[in-house]
Amino acid sequence: MKFTGTRPLLRLVLALVAVAVAALAVTGCSMVKDASKSDTAKSKVGDCINVIAGSMVDSKTEPVDCSSEKAVYKVAQIFDTKTDCKQEQTSYEETLNGGTTAFLCLTPNFKEGACYNESQTTGYKNVACTAPEASFKVTKRIDGQADEFLCDAGTAIGFRTVSDPKATFCLGNPK
Description:
Blueprint: H1 6-35, E1 48-53, E2 60-64, E3 73-79, E4 90-96, E5 99-108, E6 115-119, E7 123-127, E8 136-143, E9 158-163, E10 166-172
Antiparallel strand pairs: 1-2, 1-3, 3-5, 4-5, 6-7, 6-8, 8-10, 9-10
């Protein structure tokens, strides 16, 4: 006995099952890939990061609310592979089994009145202004403009400018 029209229906059902299996495989692989990432590596552009402990090979970081004084960095760009960040940015790379799982370009998100430690090897970290490791205090934060001449040359010991989003940080002595 032969039923007419069952082959096209069977093909359609098999095609739908194949699409569902493929979608599940892709989603499952993506979930496994994301499961191996830290909360910092799962951050989105515009999220902020606190540096708990800086290190060249194993930094301890965590996502925080951008209004927090501990929000030292803001995520500017996200990549799957190692990339050159802009000069004013700090790179964050997370690896697993020798391969890069996340690469973030971070811009400073300093708060006016807060103090920070600056290290060539580990970047910036929020510290108490009375701490011996305090490198500078942000005396003025100017959003929307990246211009070092906005800082008072008589009191500033330095400055940091960020091009995207534009910001100027005037730096003073932490004590």
